[in-house]
Q: What sequence folds into this?
């Protein structure tokens, strides 16, 4: 059996603003309408479907794997537009990037507060299954260091 992600829905207050922001930051084609969504297509066939909702939007996290050229372009657009960015998801290292797993990564927020991430390498799978620090595993500070090579 094969399982692949086809699409995901990102809730937002204004789908034109949010979909346009993502497409702009990642250098994607303009969003296209589909039913009541605005859709941003990724190169791997997955679509990001923006849907408006009333009331508060719960912030989520979305990570995008990009090549080195795409990372440079994305980071350049983030900086040129004055978008806040961080090396870590806790937002303790403003204006920096990270080098987790030997690649480069940056976190930045969209207009609804969703934490977006551009990375040049997927995080190592063996690191993802490391023991819990509370149970005597690796210290959590390893995950917060922007210069940490995993």
A:
């Amino acid at each position: 059996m094969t399982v692949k992600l086809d699409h995901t829905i990102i809730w937002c207050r204004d789908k034109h603003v949010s979909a346009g922001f993502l497409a702009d930051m990642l250098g994607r084609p303009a969003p296209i309408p589909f039913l009541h969504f605005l859709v941003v297509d990724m190169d791997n066939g997955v679509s990001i479907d923006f849907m408006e909702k009333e009331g508060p939007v719960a912030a989520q996290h979305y990570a995008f794997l990009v090549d080195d050229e795409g990372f440079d372009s994305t980071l350049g657009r983030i900086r040129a537009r004055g978008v806040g960015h961080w090396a870590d998801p806790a937002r303790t290292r403003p204006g920096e990037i990270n080098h987790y797993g030997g690649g480069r990564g940056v976190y930045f927020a969209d207009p609804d507060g969703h934490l977006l991430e551009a990375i040049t390498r997927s995080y190592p799978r063996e690191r993802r299954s490391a023991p819990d620090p509370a149970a005597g595993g690796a210290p959590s500070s390893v995950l917060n260091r922007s210069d940490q090579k995993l």
Summary: DSSP finds four helices and eight strands in the chain. Residues 135-150 have pLDDT under 50 and may be disordered. Strands lie at 7-12, 32-34, 37-41, 47-52, 61-65, 85-86, 105-109, 115-119. The chain has one domain: 7-144.
